[in-house]
Amino acid sequence: KTWLFNNKRKKERRDMIKYGRRWTPRMVIYQQKWEEVLKRIEDESRAKPGGCGMFKHYQAAVKRVMAELSDNELEKVKETAKEWFNNFPPPKIQ
Description:
The structure is a single chain. The protein has helices at about 5, 25-30, 35-45, 55-70, 70-85. The protein is mostly helical. The longest helix is centred in the last third of the chain and has 16 residues, at about 70-85.
């Protein structure tokens, strides 16, 4: 090999995988209010929690729960998402 190849600047190695999760307000709401989301899915669509029909209605149910939150609660959820992303979520949720 050539001298330039042997004496080039070395690149820092980075992990190919980012360990962790990007927390969003939607994910935080589901983690904190999962019972309410599952109950709403069951009431509105009569799909049993854990069944394959439940997943069709999951996004709509979480969206409705988010829509019912006040602006104050939504800001609090956004702050929680930032905190969990930068640090770690509570051990109960991990």
